[in-house]
Amino acid sequence: MLKVKSNTILLYIIALFTVISSRSTYLYITNSSAIYSIMAYGVIPLMWIDILTCSSNKVLIDRKRFITAVSILLLLGIYCIFSQTDVEYSILLISTVITIYIYCSVKEQLNYAILLETVCNIIFFLAVVSIVMWLLGSILHLLPYKYITANWGTSGYNKTGNLLKSYLMIQFENDQTYLFGKLFTCNKSIFIERGFAAYNFNIALYYEMLINKNKGKAKKIILIIAVITTFSTAGFVTLSIFLTGYYLINGNNNILLKIFRVFSAPLVLALSYILINYVMETKMGYMHSYSSRMQDFINGFEIWKQSPIFGYGYANSRIINEFHTGYSNSVSAVLTQGGLVLFIPYFSSFIGGTIRSLRQHNLNKALFIIMLLINVVFANVPFLNITIYLLVYVGAYEISPLQVNELEDNHK
Predict the structure, then answer these.
(1) Whose CA is closest to 103, among 174, 3, 36, 14?
(2) I need a surface site. Which of 24, 25, 49, 328 has the fewest CB within 10 A?
(3) Does residue 374 sit within a domain?
(4) 6/92 Cα distance (integer angstroms)
C-alpha cells in the first residue's frame, strides 16, 4: 500500500467519480442527466482542487513534460477545429486529457500511482458486493427488487429504453446467457453492460497481480470470480490470455519449472482456445453477439474511409444512428470519431509503452500494458476517464508504475 500524503477523502471522491463514469447504470437511468453531467465534468475540477490544496504537491515543469503537454494540446486543438465535434465536447475532451496529464505530473504526491490504487480499491469493493448480490438476488432470489428504465440502446428498433431489474440500486441485471446448456444471469454490478463490468474488474485484477503484487490470494480470486460471473465473451477471452501470460512470466524460479512452463505453454494455450471457442460458439447459437461484434469492426472501417483524417467528431451519436453500428470496440470508435489524427497517437502510446518495457526486460509491465490494450480494443471504452488516465499512465508518463515503491522510499 502506498503511504504518500494526499487529500485522501478528495482522492476517493475522484476515484469514485472515475468508476461511476465508466458506463455505470446510474448515468443512464431515465431523467439522470444531472448525474451524467456531474460524473462527466466533475473529475476535472476535483483534480485541480486536489492539486492546489495539497501543500506537498510540486508540479515538475521540465522540458520533456512541457513539450508533451503542448503537443497534446496542439493535437487536440487541431482535431477539434477541423472535426465535427461540438464546442462543448471539444472543451471537455481537451480539458480532461490535459488535466489528467498534469495530475499525473505531480511528483511529490505520486498521483499517477495513488489514483490507480484508489480506483482499484473501489472496483474490488464493487466486485465483492456484486458477487454477494448476484448469488443472493439473481441466483437464489432472496433479495427484493424493482424495475427501472435505462436510456441505453435506445437507437434503432428500441426507442423506449431497457427495463432493468434493480437490487437496492447497487446491483442491476437484464442480461442472461446460455452456457453449458443452462441459462445464467450475468453479473453486471453497477454497470450498464456486462462487458463494462468485466473491463473494470480486469483492470483491478491486473493491478493486484502485476503492480501491487499483494501476496494474498483472496483479492485475486474474488476479482477472477467477478470477471467469470459477468459471462462476458470479451471477459472470458481476456482473462484466459492474461492468466496464460502471467503463468508463463511468473512463478517459481526453479530451472526445471521454467522449462516445464515453456513446454507446457502450447497445452495451456490450446486448452484456453478450446474453452473460449466453446463459450463463443455456445453464445453465438443463442445471442449472435460474436457475429455482431465482428460486424462492428467492418462497419467502423467502412465509416472511417469516408472521413479518414479527422473522423466524424468526438461523441458524434449521429453516426451510430445513421450507420446502425453500436461501436462495440474502441478501434471503430476512435477511427470513426477521431480519424487517423487521434487513432495513431492513441494506440501508439500503448505500443510505445510495451516496447520500452521489453527493452527494460520488465515483462510484468509489458504484460500489464498489453492486457490494457487488448481490453481497450474489445470494449467501447476509449474516451472514458479511466481509460484516458490509463493511456497517460502507460504512454505519456515516463515513470514506470512498477517503480512506485522505489520513488516512495526515496521520497522518505
Answers:
(1) 14
(2) 49
(3) yes
(4) 26
User: Between vectors from CA 80 to CA 79 and to CA 82, what angle results, nearest 5°?
Assistant: 65
The answer to the question of residue 2 being in a domain is no
For residue 408, the model assigns a pLDDT of 40
User: Which residue carries 502485476 as its cell?
Assistant: 210
- Domain of 298 in residue numbering reads as 8-411
* Residue 223, C-alpha cell as written in the block: 476479482
Q: Cell numbers at residue 161, please?
A: 429504453
**H/E element, 315:** none
pLDDT, one tens digit per residue, over 355-382 is 888 888 888 888 999 999 999 888 888 8
Query: Is the Cβ–Cβ distance between 17 and 47 less than 8 Å?
Result: no
**Burial class (CB within 10 angstroms; exposed 0-12, middle 13-18, buried 19+) of 179:** middle
Looking at the structure of the chain, the number of domains it has is 1
Note the pTM of the prediction, 2 decimals.
0.84
| Confidence grade of residue 4 (pLDDT, cut at 50, 70, 90) | very low
Q: Does some domain include residue 293?
A: yes
With a CB cutoff of 8 Å and minimum separation 6, the contacts of 335 are 300, 301, 303, 304, 311, 343
Which candidate, 82, 91, 86, 90, places its Cα nearest to that of 308? 82
142/167 Cα distance (integer angstroms):
10
Grid cell 519449472 is found at 257
Alpha helices in 134-254 (DSSP H): 194-206, 218-229, 233-249
Q: Which of residues 353 and 199 earns the better pLDDT score?
A: 199
| 92: CB partners within 8 A, 6+ apart | 40, 41
1 lies in some domain: no
pLDDT of 161: 55
DSSP 226-272: HHHHTT-HHHHHHHHHHHHHHHHHSS---HHHHHHHHHHHHHHHHHH
Residues 6+ apart with CB under 8 A from 322: none
Question: Cell 477541423 sits at which residue?
Answer: 82
